[in-house]
Amino acid sequence: MLWRRVCLCRMHFHTWRSEGPLFWVYAIGNGSQLLVGAAISFQAFNTYFIHCTYPLHPSHYFLAHHFAKLLHSKTGKLKRVYTQNIDGLANAVGLPDEKVVSVHGNISKTSCETCGKEMDFNAFCDQVETKIRDIYNPQNGPVKSESICCEGCGKATVKPKTVLFGSSLPEEFFTRSEEDLPGTDLLIVAGTSLVVSPANTLVYRVPKDAQRVVVNNEPVGQQLGIDYGSNAERDYFAQGYCDEVFLDLICDLGWLEDLNEVADNLPASSVKLILAKEKE
Question: pTM of the full predicted structure?
Answer without folding.
Answer: 0.77
